[in-house]
Amino acid sequence: MAVVRATEKDIQTLARLMRAEAEGEGKLGMLLVGNVGVNRVRSDCLDFKAIRDIQDMVFQSPGGFEATTKPYFYQRARETDIALARRVVAGERFHPGTRSLWFFEPPGECPPQWYNQWNVGRFKAHCFYSPTAQDCPRI
Description:
By secondary structure, the chain is of the alpha+beta class. It has helices at 8-22, 26-43, 54-58, 79-89, and strands spanning 102-104, 113-114, 117-123, 126-130.
């Protein structure tokens, strides 16, 4: 059962985002990006109160994903990427993306906080940040 509503177009868009943001970090890296995206749709808190679906999340402005400004985001989704997107829409979660709403690639170590959110872990080059349960109880 899906944890967010998703049309076939949404799945394709999410798959393209996951690939564009984290292809170099393998399948788990891509799944973690998907976790962050799905969390943003589900959260209804902080910077994501107006996000209602995957299209809103992917193309949020300001505050969206840098990959949407790059040509490689607009490549067709591959079957393997689509399968990964379906997994996160179905509710699969992976640490440190379980409750994360943000990730970024710092030039060095992960800062303990980023925009007042605490670091909950790192996967390869990306640091992940989660809100408190009090700030965002829905994720």
